[in-house]
Amino acid sequence: MTAYWAILSARFRMLLQYRAAALAGLFCQVIFGLIAIMVYEAFYASTERRPPMTFSQLVGYVWLGQAMLGMLPWRPDGEVQGIIRSGAVAYELLRPMDLYSLWYSRAVALRVAPTLLRAAPMFLLAMFGLPLLGLGEWALTAPASWAAAGAWIVAMAAALLLSCAVTMLINISLIPSAGSDGVSIVLMAAVTFFSGMVIPLPLFPDWLRPLLEATPFAGLMDTPFRLYTGHYPPSATMELIVRQLLWTLALILLGRWLLACSMRKLVIQGG
Amino acid sequence: MTDVLYLYGRYIGVSVRGQMQYPVTFVVQSLGILLVTGMEFVGIWAMFDRFGNLRGWTLPQIAFLYGLVSVTFAFADAMARGFDMFSGTVRRGDFDRILARPRSTVLQLAGQELTLRRVGRLAQGLTILTWAVLALDLTWSAPTAGLLLLTIVGGVCLFSGLVVLQATMCFWTTESLEVWNAFTYGGVVAAQYPLNIYRAWFRQFLTCVVPVACVTYFPALAMMDRADPLGSPRWFQCVAPLAGPIFMLIALQAWRVGVRHYTSTGS
Question: Is the pLDDT reported for residue B74 higher than 70?
């Protein structure tokens, strides 16, 4: 366990070095968030029909999405991709550690470090910065209630575990093609769409929603965001988190099985 | 001039042949881009399914704007790749070699790569644009077709100009400025929707500072024969795409200043 912890903390410190890049990323995300909100605002003003979520819930959803973007598993772990491409998987196998757990702890650092860097300033900007600029109605509001805040934190923790399980699937999908994108592109597109990052899942047509909410990817972003904004009542927390954890377990088992299969067929070229 | 075109053709030929060494990678990456951008449009469809209209605009009208942006950005993104990767060229000291050759730096960088996988976005954009034209039942005449061509050329100039400006910054910062992505990609996203839905300050930004509205919204109104809710006159809508080439010329001027300022990293 100490070994995995060391891997995690070393990677973590390395990722925290890139502060200027984080600042640039923050600026881009604020702009994207603002454009999205302006578009949604226009849609909301265009109809008499009652939308499935209030405008303030929608604004909260957008800013939470921008704040938590670092946790979205939309890319493979660059380091693992390099390891697969260069054939260094052989070295990884020589370590007296379980390969899946090794890469999984890397993934935890990869997802947590940028999120910590970006989430805090994003929250400050979206909650307090925008009202100062006179854009109060576009600001992120506090969680719907204390219960909602608590549910959100637990759901984010579960989302992290789920996100790393998905990252592992993307990593493993790179092995058969020696590091070039293939299946991974499809996975990444699915992650972005089904987690609610294209448009919030509640806004999809009502007949499509049960289907969208059933995919494992809904647990990555959509579930915690709706708990925060009060779109899901806090009483639904237990069921939602069990669903996130069951999907995590299923994806970890799938990932372990796929990794074992590809290790059996692994060919290391000499050199 | 013919010499320049000939050389550009040779550069592009080399780049294309290089990428075609990995045909499967090319096909997979193009399909990937097609899938990702396709999902973006599914999102827009879902919004119209729920809300019916966007400040009086229908889905085919938005699709027309969306298709225009997608097509022009796909071209610009494929052609300006050499400038897009310019921070690496400066950091590695490769720009010294480019300066040593008796041809213009712009030509050499433009010829560095024609990114074929952007065909995924181009295909998506063309499909949506075609669907929009059919659904809107537009009447085509020579002037309308000319305006469409001018709009696309103008858009390619504008988006390439943005990438050239981003590369120009590297002369001072060496590192690529990611902040610039807010203008490039932010402009792409913002131009997918009609200008009249935005607040006044953002409208002015999209018309005067980074004039993406001039190569999408205004000419699109003229082509759709629709009155502008913001009240711009028809003649302005028709000449607006010229903002693209003007922007490009300004960007190239800035580039020239940057080249004069260049000091090698010495690596």
Answer: yes
Nearest alpha-carbon partner for B216 in B246, B188, B191: B191
Token reading at A25? 């990323």
pLDDT for B20-45, tens place per residue?
Answer: 888 887 888 888 888 888 899 999 99
Question: Among candidates B82, B54, B263, which has minimal Cα distance to B164?
Answer: B82
- Please give the Cα distance from A186 to B232 (Å, whole number): 43
Is residue B203 exposed (0-12), middle (13-18) or buried (19+ Cβ within 10 Å)?
A: middle
Q: Hey, are the CB atoms on B189 and A35 less than 8 Å from each other?
A: yes
Per the document, the length of chain B is 267
Quick check: B265 and B90 in contact, CB under 8 A? yes
Closest CB to A39: pick one of B36, B39, B197: B197
Q: Does A203 touch chain B (CB under 8 A)?
A: yes
Q: What is the pLDDT of residue B267?
A: 57
Secondary structure of B40-51 in HEC code, one letter for each residue:
HHHHHHHHHHHH
Q: Are B18 and B12 in contact (CB under 8 A)?
A: no
A5: Cβ–Cβ under 8 A, 6 or more apart, which residues? A105
Please compute Rg for chain A using Cα positions. Answer: 20
- Contacting residues of B for A38, CB less than 8 Å apart: 197-199, 202
Q: What angle do CA A210, A243, A113 make, to 5 degrees?
A: 110
Q: How many CA atoms does the CB half-sphere of B179 hold within 13 Å?
A: 10
Distance CA A102, CA B144 (A): 60
- Is residue A43 within 8 Å of residue B194, measured between CB atoms? no
Which of A21, A27, A193 lies closest to B182 in CB terms?
Answer: A27
Question: Would you say A269 and A184 are in contact if contact means Cβ atoms under 8 Å apart?
Answer: no
Q: Which residue has the tokens 């999984």?
A: A104
Residue A179 — very low, low, confident or very high, per pLDDT cuts 50/70/90?
Answer: low
Task: Give the SS3 label for residue B54.
Answer: strand
pTM: 0.88
Structure-token pair, residue B11: 């550069």
Selected residues 22-61 of chain B with any CB under 8 Å from a CB in chain A: 25, 28-29, 31-32, 35-36, 39-40, 42-43, 46-47, 49-56
Per-domain residue ranges of chain B: 2-261
Q: What is the pLDDT of residue A268?
A: 67
pLDDT tens digits for range B126-179: 999 999 999 998 888 888 999 999 999 999 999 999 999 999 988 887 776 778
pLDDT digits (tens, 9 = 90+) for A9-51: 887 777 666 667 777 888 888 999 999 999 999 999 998 888 9
Contacts of A200 in chain B (CB under 8 A): none
Under an 8 A CB cutoff, do A46 and B51 touch? yes
- Residues B129, B68: Cα–Cα separation, whole Å: 7
Please name the amino acid found at residue B179.
V
Phi, psi of B54, rounded to the nearest 5 degrees: -125, 100
H/E segment holding residue B259: helix B243-261
CB atoms within 10 A of CB A149: 14
